[in-house]
Amino acid sequence: MSTAEGPRSASSPRRPTLDPASAAIRNAVRAALAVAESSVPGLIVAVSGGADSMALLHATAFLHRRGEIRARAVTVDHGLQTVTAEVADRVAVTAESWGVPAEVMRVSIDAGEEGLEAAARTARYAALETARAAAGADWILTAHTRSDQAETVLLGLMRGSGTRSLAGMSPLAGRLMRPLLGLDRDRTEASCQAQGIEIWNDPMNADTAFTRVRARQLLAGLEAQLGQPITANLARTADLCRADADFIDAHAEAAGQTIRGAASVPVEVFTALDDAVLSRVVRDWVISLGVPGQNLGAVRVAELCALICDRRRGRLSLPGDTEVVVSDGRAVFQPAAKAR
Fold this sequence. Notes:
It comes from Brevibacterium sediminis. Residues 1-20 are annotated as: Disordered. The chain has 12 helices and 10 strands. The strands form 2 sheets. Strands 3-2-1-4-6-5 form a 6-stranded mixed beta sheet, with helices on both faces. The chain has a 4-stranded antiparallel beta sheet with strand order 7-10-9-8. By secondary structure, the protein is α/β, with parallel strands linked by helices. The chain is 49% helix and 13% strand. The radius of gyration is 24 Å and the shape is elongated.
């Protein structure tokens, strides 16, 4: 992996003109880091070797050399393909050739019940957080673009999800920062091409066995057929939904504080809530009592809300061998082993 950008010779005193795509990426990183408390923030830059992450690495390497940030490149090798070990090592060498310290973190993936994509994502973020803590860095930067955001919203629509899911990925979540959410994937590809950056095209990104790959292909087909900027519109939908979801979540958080962890709650506590807040409070309530959130879908939450608001005696089974029983004006959570 290499880049066309290098040291200037004595015969070329003028700095070469920066291509618009690379300039936009540098500016996006600078804008995102405006929230940083440190004047020279420490960053873990997640790099896979693809165009998005290599363009991000190139931009952060420039800022690192200028002393605006302290960057460290981290490549997580999931070991899902034989070539990934070589790609990860090559990425690390490239990062260091650009002046950025780098490391490769190798993880093992157990698909389990959550599936391969989700398991790989969980392992990747855990590894990145480990690297951030070890380095004492302020933020983890990932190269998700507006194109990724649109795919995320489309997947939420396909699942029939609520506002929070349609809000897509947040530009800032905990110590995770996504500075490129305002840029399309073609911008990162243009940057790599202009700077002569070698990239790795992961064959899994073309494997239609994965739902996200099919969503990506569907988006491209819809834009071509309808002649509409669907990617940009879906990303804007995410921004609008995120603002709404944040507002409602704040109200739900306050409303649910008093019942979190309580196995028996008066039904009136729930029925006094607006529907939008109710579903969030009910979901948070049972999760606080041990129900695995990844197995608690919107349909089951809606059924539980209906049971509680109906006020009549009844019961509903929940994931994790648990259930909620409504009786005598109370909603009681109990393990299935203690029921009946």
